[in-house]
């Protein structure tokens, strides 16, 4: 099932961790609607602006999968409103700056550990917060810094 012209449901729910642990990472109708909105409102415009394919490294995470990967209990991944993405030919920091410049309706934009970009959308009907952060490890703990560092 295609959620948008360039993004499939299969890629938005694919998880090697879920497969290896036997976790069924299966969305319901509400999660599918959120994933579709994420693809149409954010991922498609990013792909168009970059002129390159966007690779989703993590999309939907059902609660059991989210716990297994150490995700926040309040993660937007749980209800299909977030994706961790990379574009192979664009460094994550540059990708985060591109997304920020596009003025998309994101809730959070996080450049994570210099390795990928997390982008999420707000719940339907809520305004975008457009929070911009950088996740880094300091003394072995994840710290969130304001802006793109």
Please describe the topology of this protein:
Blueprint (H helix, E strand, L loop, with lengths): L8 H5 L2 H6 L7 H22 L4 E4 L4 H6 L13 E5 L5 H11 L5 E5 L3 E5 L10 E8 L2 E6 L3
Parallel strand pairs: 3-5
Antiparallel strand pairs: 1-2, 2-4, 3-4, 5-6
Quick summary:
The protein has 149 residues and is of the alpha+beta class.
Characteristics:
single chain; 149 residues; alpha+beta; Muramoyl-pentapeptide Carboxypeptidase, domain 2; six-stranded mixed beta sheet; 22% strand; globular
The total strand number stands at: 6
**Assigned CATH class:** Alpha Beta
> Which range best describes the helical content: under 10%, 10-25%, 25-40%, 40-55%, 55-70% or over 70%?
25-40%
**CATH fold annotation:** Muramoyl-pentapeptide Carboxypeptidase, domain 2
What gyration radius follows from the Cα positions, in whole Å?
Answer: 14 Å
Provide mean pLDDT, rounded: 97
CATH architecture designation: 2-Layer Sandwich
Number of alpha- plus pi-helical segments: 5
Q: Strand order across the biggest sheet?
A: 1-2-4-3-5-6
Distance between the termini: 37 Å
Give, in order, the helices and strands: HHHEHEHEEEE
- Catalogue the unreliable spans: none
How would the global form be characterised?
Answer: globular
Domain module count: 1
């Amino acid at each position: 099932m295609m959620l948008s012209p360039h993004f499939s449901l299969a890629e938005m729910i694919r998880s090697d961790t879920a497969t290896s642990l036997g976790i069924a990472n299966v969305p319901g109708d509400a999660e599918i609607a959120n994933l579709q909105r994420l693809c149409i409102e954010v991922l498609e415009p990013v792909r168009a602006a970059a002129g390159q394919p966007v690779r989703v490294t993590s999309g939907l995470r059902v609660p059991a999968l989210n716990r297994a990967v150490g995700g926040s209990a309040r993660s937007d991944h749980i209800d299909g409103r977030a994706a961790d993405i990379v574009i192979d030919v664009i460094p994550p920091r540059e990708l985060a700056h591109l997304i920020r410049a596009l003025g998309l309706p994101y809730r959070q934009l996080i450049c994570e550990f210099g390795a990928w970009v997390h982008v999420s959308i707000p719940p339907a009907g809520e305004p975008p917060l457009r929070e911009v952060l950088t996740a880094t490890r300091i003394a072995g703990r994840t710290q969130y810094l304001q802006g793109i560092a």
